[in-house]
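Notes to self after the Tuesday call (sharing in case useful).
The group wants a holo model before anyone commits to mutagenesis around the pocket. I volunteered. Ligand is zinc ion. Logging inputs and output together so the record is complete.
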Amino acid sequence: MNSSGVEAHLGPGLRPDRRRFLQMAAAIACAPMAERLGAAGLGAAVLRRTVAVPGGFAVVHLGPDAAAPIAHFNGDRVFVSGTPSAWLAIVGIPLDSQPGRAPPLTIQYSAGSPRVVYFTIEEKHYDAEYLTLKSDQVDLNPADLARCEAERTHLQRVLRTYSDPLPASLLLLPPCQGTRTSTFGLVRFFNGQARGAHNGMDIAAQVGKPVMAAASGEVIDVGDYFFSGRTVLVNHGRGFISLYAHLSDVKVKPRRRVMAGQQMGKIGITGRVTGPHLHFAVYLNAVAVDPALFLLSEPRVQPLYSL
Ligand SMILES: [Zn+2]
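Result:
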């Protein structure tokens, strides 16, 4: 673990508990493969206690095996990393999960029949947010409903993309400069009606400002959708995927490689929005998880979890 490199990422002024958590997460994300499990072993207990909440992730030790075990959660392939002496799974936990025993994590080792592991989901309270939209953006007509359903199915399929190469890092760069206007997990009311929780982070900025890839990867979808407007999805590897929505000008195409920090489009006002902003979402095993857990250099990130 390169502690001085990690320190450089964090900067002064963070609460000690937040700082310690970020150091643990950064250690896992930054350490070379051979060192990763050592760092993960140090951080896993903290991470389990800290982020195994709805919208977070669980770090589950899988033990030794000659090759990376194949793990599934709710039928979706799970991020697995490590070395033959010790593997670990990083499991995205759905926002609508109940606290308590999680559904089974199924693990196929290189020999023998699959095994099942359970972990515990801890409680987390998310605040509510009240938004006002045009009524036809809340009460959808049958044609819009059918469109949304088809788009939801398409996006869910894209989010199930799983490729074997390991991401260079679990750290993400800020995808744009701007002001955080809505955090992940807020329970949303549109015109007074309860809707699903917010599954990403909103960053407000002027139309036309650049939007960058938060990490290197492959563009796996470019679309223009009812809710998210012009949207790009990037696959970073092993089910770790980022999504950029409401863009005004998309420069990239599917199957193109992008580098961390490379401009992919511009801030826009497309889809269902109340003003120009980027909706930024991060996924593990097709589950939306809190982007703030990975954006270690984002200056406006607020402490979401305490140890
Ligand atoms: Zn959003």
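Two things stood out.
The first helix runs from residue 3 to 10.
Residues 1-49, 298-307 have pLDDT under 50 and may be disordered.
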